[in-house]
Design goal:
This protein has helices spanning 9-22, 31-39, 81-93, 107-115, 156-166, 174-182, 232-246, 264-271; strands at 2-5, 50-55, 58-66, 70-75, 98-103, 119-121, 128-133, 147-150, 191-195, 201-210, 215-223, 251-254, 275-285. It is an alpha+beta fold.
């Protein structure tokens, strides 16, 4: 077994390989999550301690620390003991309060967290994993005069402006978005915007395709505040999902908030035929080392 520190894009691909190999509707990570999370902001690499565990040329586990004290991780269920090693590494980096979020269906991770003294928390937000097959997608129906199209280089500034307005305050910039566009497995034909009759970007949807698993992920989507409640998010998501189906996807996943504090995205995706398969659970450790 070799444990090594993350050094660059080749290691990200190794992390994505594990996610793709493990993917099912009941697993947490899609390859697009890692690409979007790693490249949407520039200059943050020093904030993200990341470690990989490998054997026989395959990645079997990884851990990615997010400030101030949360951990993302993936562990092959065939090697559940590695979850304990990832948690030990995390504790060495963050000796105080810390948290780990996993999907409720990842029983091997829940067992490791319980054994390490973590407890599940009912406080704070959680996310619901929604899935649908891509047969029978409705036709996109944007408002009259609006156009749906894939993002090209000329439309990057408008695409970034919509994201920054939809997720204000945001650290996404044109520079970081071009890094996203250069990352595997980004595809420009799966990155869509809705334009006003004047050519202004008003909404967007980025879809990531795992070709090996034939599953697409929506991550992220957003609408300018002044254009909300006009059906633009639904229309642009459907356009991007239809493009993913043409590219070979058979299913799609999306992870909206599931708690009552931010219900609109979940209602949108359910109206498009997505249904729940699992939710996230956050496990916590207090600063004394006890749950």
């Amino acid at each position: 077994m070799i444990a090594s520190t993350y050094e660059g894009p080749a290691d990200l691909r190794a992390m994505q390989e594990l996610c793709s190999r493990l993917w099912s509707p009941r697993s947490r990570w899609h390859v697009g999550d890692l690409a979007w999370g790693r490249f949407q902001h520039t200059g943050r690499e020093h904030e993200w301690p990341t470690r990989l565990w490998r054997a026989g040329g395959r990645t079997l586990a990884w851990g990615w620390v997010q400030p101030p004290g949360s951990l993302d991780l993936a562990v092959d269920p065939a090697r559940p003991e590695l979850a304990g090693e990832v948690l030990e590494w995390f504790a060495g980096l963050v000796p105080g309060e810390r948290s780990v979020t996993v999907l409720e269906t990842e029983e091997h991770l829940a067992a490791a967290l319980r054994g390490a003294g973590y407890r599940p928390s009912d406080d704070g937000p959680f996310f619901t994993h929604l899935v649908r097959g891509l047969d029978g997608l409705p036709e996109p129906a944007p408002p009259p005069g609006f156009r749906l199209r894939a993002v090209d280089e000329a439309r990057v500034p408008g695409r970034v402006a919509v994201h920054r307005a939809a997720f204000h305050p945001s650290r996404v910039t044109e520079e970081s978005y071009r890094a996203v566009r250069a990352a595997w497995p980004y595809r420009a034909d799966l990155d869509w915007i809705a334009e006003t009759p004047d050519g202004e970007a008003a909404a967007y949807c980025l879809v990531w395709l795992d070709e090996a698993r034939r599953v697409a992920e929506i991550e992220p989507t957003g609408t300018l505040p002044g254009h909300r409640r006009r059906g633009l998010a639904r229309a642009v998501c459907l356009a991007a999902l239809r493009a993913a189906r043409e590219a070979g996807a058979e299913h799609a996943v999306v992870y909206p908030r599931g708690d009552d504090a931010y219900p609109v995205p979940g209602r949108l995706y359910r109206s498009m035929g997505f249904g729940p398969v699992a939710r996230t659970v956050t496990w916590v450790m207090d600063g004394s080392g006890g749950a």
